[in-house]
Amino acid sequence: MKLWGGRFEKGTDRIVEEFNASISIDSRMYKQDINGSIAHAKMLGKCGIVDMGEAEIIIAGLLEILNDIEAGKVEFTIEDEDIHMNIERLLIAKIGDIGKKLHTARSRNDQVALDFRMYTKDTIQQVITLLIDLEKTIINKAEENISTIFPGYTHLQKAQPITLSHHFMAYFEMFKRDMERFKDCLKRVDIMPLGSCALAGTSYPLDRYMVADELGFADIAANSIDAVSDRDFAIEFASCCSILMMHLSRFCEEIIIWNSSEFGFIEMDDAYSTGSSIMPQKKNPDVAELIRGKTGRVYGDLITLLTIMKALPLAYNKDMQEDKEAVFDAADTVIACLKVFAPMLSTMRFKDEGIKKSLKDGFLNATDIADYLVNKGVAFRDAHAAVGSMVGYCIKQRKALEDLSIEEFHIFFGGIEADIYDYIELSSCVKRKSIVGGPSQKIVAEAIKKAKAYIDTL
To answer: Does any domain span residue 136?
Structure first.
């Protein structure tokens, strides 16, 4: 008989059992479920709701079940629907009727909310750890390339010279925000719901703060209805995952572009590339492409959660059983992508010849000539127009701006002097961008120092 089947006269149809069961999804929360039950049993014993000796027997039985599961000795069944009832059934089989007392003063509603929050807390810590590893990789790459002049782009068109290090540190800032988002999300996850029961709490004299302390929660849920019906924390987690995946996807898009023969900026390591089944010359950036593709999958997980919750009345509804698969998939995908992305990035080799070739065209120093004219007293809009005419002239003459003679410069502005050539040399252009947040070697070195200090605080 089902553990909840006292009022039923007829057994559940097999099709319904298979449809209703979630054990294939939520079995991964066995450790959280057992640890939550151990804390609950300790509290029941301390509060005198269950005899202390019986509570100790329950705890010992739960620990044995945990060992059995991790030793591969346990097979869960769909007849017991979910991880909670599977473990309870195992406990009763192991220690007898005393095991039936474990569920005193709780419901599967607050039990699953507890397990889900514990699982999400653990996952957030894992994601943050992987993000720290990625940030260290980015810092290393930035240090290696602090003097490398690199073409900066807007609209995927060459725009201004920067340092490659500066480009890497832009991604450091993105992933730093991701870490801060996950850490902030953790505040909403770190709330202990147990004791709310189905929705109305209980008349037993529980010590909810004791359970929270046992399980390492920062606080307890303030409202029993909200405690069992809230999945904001899961939605927020999936949102953090989606934003992180968007950042990974943007980085992967650039890696894919840089890896193309048209750009020729990088060489992917053989260990993080694949070949073609028909074209023997190919070396494909499949890892980066797959991360880019998996981003849409995580977005889908977020939309799944939002759609599940969008019209649910209070309190718990069976629809919410569908929440865990989306969160688990988002977590698994993010963790897998982070694990492969950092080493792919660390083994990626930049090709100086490809970068230098790209710097020779695109008029990357055009804005600097406008600034030069402004320093000569020309209004910026007039300087902008003059340099635009210079670029048009260079295109017709098939020249770079630095290839113009002084006489040709004077066609557009008579006050240009010989110092123009030093002024628009690309390394000089970058060096002058020395305001805070700029790409100069000095400023980026300071940014790297601050980044290292930030990582050391985590």
So the answer is: yes
**95 and 167 in a common domain:** no
- Domain count for the chain, please give it: 3
Radius of gyration for the chain, computed over Cα atoms and rounded to the nearest angstrom = 31
279 to each of 3, 55, 268, 321, 369, how far by Cα in Å?
60, 67, 18, 47, 46
Mean pLDDT to the nearest integer, 57-63: 98
Of the candidates 24, 147, 260, 276, the residue annotated as catalytic is 276
Which residue intervals of 21-107 are DSSP H helices? 23-26, 30-46, 52-70, 83-95
CA angle 165, 171, 176 (to 5 degrees): 120
Domain boundary among 298, 328, 353: 353
**What is the CB-side half-sphere exposure of residue 141 using CA atoms within 13 A?**
24
Active site residue 103: no
**Residue 220: φ, ψ to 5°:** -110, 155
> What amino acid occupies position 282?
K
Examine the fold and report which residue of 353, 386, 418 is the final residue of a domain before the chain moves on.
353
Active-site residue, selected from the candidate residues 155, 203, 277, 405: 155
* Residue 173 maps to a domain: yes
Q: Judge whether 247 counts as a catalytic residue.
A: no
Q: What is the largest CA-CA distance in the chain?
A: 101
Do residues 304 and 326 lie in contact, with contact meaning Cβ atoms separated by under 8 Å? yes
2 found inside a domain: no
Torsion of CA 107, 109, 110, 111, to 10 degrees: 80
- Cα distances from 340 to residues 117, 130, 172, 218, in angstroms, run 27, 10, 17, 33
CATH code where residue 379 lies:
1.10.40.30
DSSP-assigned letter for residue 284:
B
User: How far does CA 121 lie from the centroid of its chain?
Assistant: 14
Are 71 and 194 in a shared domain? no
Range of the domain at 202: 109-151+161-353
Q: Per residue in 362-387, pLDDT tens?
A: 999 999 999 999 999 999 999 999 99
- Predicted TM-score of the model (pTM): 0.94
Mean pLDDT in residue range 444-458: 97
Instruction: Give which of 170, 159, 214, 174 is closest to 192, Cα–Cα.
Output: 214
Cβ atoms of residues 305 and 244 within 8 Å = no
The H or E element containing residue 273 is: none
